[in-house]
Design brief:
Layout (H helix, E strand, L loop, with lengths): L6 H8 L3 H7 L12 H32 L4 H11 L5 H5 L25 H12 L7 E2 L24 H8 L2 H19 L7 H16 L16 H4 L4 H9 L23 H12 L6 E10 L8 E2 L7 E10 L4 E6 L12 H10 L10 E4 L6 H9 L3 E5 L13 H7 L4 E6 L4 E7 L3 E6 L8 E7 L4 E7 L1 H9 L2 H11 L11 H25 L8 H13 L15 H4 L9 H9 L19 E4 L31 E6 L2 E6 L18
Helix pairs in contact: 3-4, 7-18, 8-9, 9-19
């Protein structure tokens, strides 16, 4: 058996039975171990030559396919190099040939008894396949600029302008308040056998009070009802006892529906209906072109297994929430961190799976731009989003760059501030850029690279002045559109509801209420811009308007006045019982002091006394009670000339009355002078 053997001939020979295989290579009957030493050496030499020929044929085939389709060669090469096994010499000697099928096709009795892969498992296998660094081919060549223009659009605003309360009800509708009222009644009866008897309207008032407390902050909740610091918009609506009762029995879900304690139990079961309702309302919002994925902290220092500590955050202790927000600060989706069960496994680890989960509702093939920091970013994540028609840009850690041969920080530092180096992964057109500012920063993107190169101003400590530093295009895009989540966090922090509670989930409830306010305000501003107007309503006014509207839930427009009646009510006389003379006096009289007013009338020196007690509509002064000594009063001052004295139920008061006499000596009706 000498000479050249084709691959088909070699495969046919290796698949022959033992007796036919030995006969084909001129070996006597029996095992191949009976062959002499010379024959053994010849057999081994024949196998080694055939193995080399087979390997060369496979590599030639791979090179031929690589020229036709560069995208498929990586998968073929990996399959041939890692999963295909050539026959060994020991197997050839024994007349047995090892199965040459790929390992993934072999049924494993230990895993689901050879059950077919589901769609999610296939996606996980594909994503894990991308994570292998041997697949990446980096070249310092031109980045292929593709058509990444955004194909989506924002719908027009509603025809009629909406009120702040209507914007708020988009995210916190009536169903949410009815759910809270129903579950709070159930919880009060389950815990203390108390009939709470709250309703949807009362819960709206309760939420309105919480929003007011986010604006007007006091050291203690009791101060809102105290005599010294009483706040009427809150104290006039609900009593302090009732408020604390509603706060104590506030509930969202029935405790009897609590799932069994195991590792897969939902740790946010207590507030899951509220979170689901808010998430559903956020997902239906029309998204913007630029989206950012980042983490938020809900401040909390109590006892909870979900509490996290992040050193570099303004609030270091609290619940961690992964959020997707637009460049305007509007939130579109979020996931609160609960451990490994935060989201389903998609093959990229927790950081990459979070991004895929939050962007799952984005329309595909419309070239949305997603930005993320180095905790989330990776090359497989960028490729996975690009396959869905979503562009990606973000910072990336050095150990996730697939051994990309970029210049080191020391080399870039010698070149100077603003220097950069880049490589392009040619198979998937992914750009990796390293830029040196004060230190090296790595970037990854599927739609932006170095060019067009721009400049930015930086302060030079050596020259003691601002200088222009070259800045790649990918850095400009990242700095401009990455801050959406931070902007939303800042707006929530302005008027955050900060009430202490023994319930660990109340801080998350307050956060949800603030998210609805901020999103409603940003949606209002978007609609005003679409109408060509400028919104003059600040976030403070918007939240105060919502709180005032919620406080009026279930109440009529008329508001009961507190305290003593005003002076207008006291001086008011029924029109049917007043004479024309009394009408004239009441309409024109103006009192400067509560006692009397002195005025002079040189036209007449006589005194005229008009007693109002004679009128039926004004009662006379009450008589003093018997047995009580009359208190001596100082004598009243003498009335000036030309004034009339009027007595009524509140005492005697002096008003000036000008009188004109006719030629006959009869006096005219009194007239009040200014």
């Amino acid at each position: 058996m000498s000479g050249f053997l084709a691959d088909a001939d070699l495969e046919y020979i290796m698949n022959l039975p033992d007796n036919e295989f030995n006969a084909y290579i001129d070996v006597p009957d029996g095992d191949i171990s009976d062959v002499g030493d010379e024959d053994k050496d010849e057999t081994i030499e024949i196998y080694e030559s055939s193995q080399a020929i087979s390997e060369a044929a496979v590599m030639n085939f791979i090179q031929m396919v690589e020229k036709e389709d560069g995208a498929e060669i990586s998968a073929i090469r990996e399959e041939q190099e890692t999963e295909y096994e050539f026959p060994k010499a020991d197997a050839v000697r024994s007349g047995k040939v090892i199965d040459s099928q790929p390992k993934s096709d072999v049924i494993d009795n230990n895993t689901n008894e050879g059950a077919p892969f589901t769609r999610e498992q296939e996606q996980q296998q594909q994503v894990k396949h991308r994570c292998k660094r041997s697949d990446y081919k980096f070249r310092k060549s031109g980045f292929v600029v593709q058509d990444t223009e955004w194909k989506g659009s924002l719908p027009p605003p509603p025809v009629e302008e909406m009120t702040p309360s209507q914007y708020y009800k988009i995210f916190m509708n009536d169903d949410v308040f009815e759910l809270i009222a129903e579950q709070s009644n159930i919880y009060a009866w389950q815990k203390d056998s108390v009939s709470l008897q709250t309703s949807k309207n009362e819960m709206e008032q309760f939420v309105g009070i919480l929003l007011h407390m986010g604006i007007i902050k006091m050291p203690s909740i009791h101060l809102y009802w105290s005599n010294e610091c009483r706040y009427s918009p809150i104290a006039d609506v609900i009593s302090r006892t009732r408020f604390f009762q509603l706060l104590r029995y506030f509930h969202v879900v029935n405790n009897q529906d609590l799932p069994e304690a195991n590792s897969n139990r939902d740790k946010l079961f207590k507030i899951r209906p509220l979170l689901s309702a808010l998430q559903s309302s956020l997902k239906i919002l029309p998204p913007e072109e630029y989206q950012a994925v980042d983490e938020q902290i809900i401040p909390f220092k109590g006892r909870s297994g979900l509490k996290q500590y992040i050193r570099n955050k303004p609030h270091k202790w609290g619940y961690k929430s992964f959020t997707r927000a637009g460049a305007s600060g509007m939130m579109y989706d979020f996931e609160i961190y609960v451990g490994k069960n935060t989201c389903s496994d998609r093959g990229l680890g927790l950081s990459g799976d979070i991004v895929l989960a939050l962007t799952e509702t984005l329309p595909e093939k419309q070239h949305f731009k997603v930005f993320a920091d180095s905790w989330f970013s990776s090359i497989p994540l960028a490729i996975a989003l690009k396959e869905r028609g979503i562009e990606f840009c973000g910072t990336i850690r050095t150990d996730r760059m697939g051994k990309c041969p970029l210049k080191t920080e020391a080399e870039l530092k010698k070149t100077g501030r603003g220097s950069c180096d880049w490589r392009v992964e040619t198979t998937n057109n992914v750009a990796l850029v390293r830029w040196f500012d004060r230190k090296c920063i790595n970037f990854v993107s599927t739609y932006a690279c170095v060019e067009p190169l721009a400049t930015c101003r930086r302060y030079s400590a050596s020259e003691k002045k601002f200088i222009d530093v070259p800045r790649p295009y990918i850095v400009e895009k990242y700095n401009k559109h990455m801050g959406g989540v931070d902007l939303a966090d800042m707006l929530i922090e302005l008027y955050r509801i900060n009430l202490r509670s023994r319930k660990w989930y109340m801080r998350i409830v307050y956060w949800c209420l603030s998210v609805a306010v901020v999103n409603g305000w940003l949606l209002h501003r978007r609609h005003m811009v679409q109408r060509g107007k400028t919104s003059k309503m600040s976030l403070l006014q918007f939240q105060a308007n919502i709180a005032a509207s919620l406080l009026l839930a279930g109440k009529s427009g008329s508001k009961k006045r507190r305290g003593r009646p005003s002076s207008e009510m006291l001086t008011r006389t029924p029109a049917a019982k007043s004479t024309s003379r009394l009408k004239n006096l009441q309409q024109q009289a103006r009192f400067r002091t509560p006692s009397h007013i002195h005025r002079s009338n040189p036209a007449n020196s006589t005194q005229t006394q008009v007693s109002l007690s004679e009128q039926r509509d004004v009662p006379a002064l009450p008589k003093p009670k018997p047995g009580l000594a009359a208190r001596p009063l100082p004598p009243p001052p003498p009335p000036p000339a030309n004034e009339a004295k009027i007595s009524n139920a509140r005492g005697k008061q002096w008003i000036r009355v000008n009188r004109t006499e006719k030629a006959t000596g009869a006096s005219a009706s009194p007239r009040i002078t200014n």
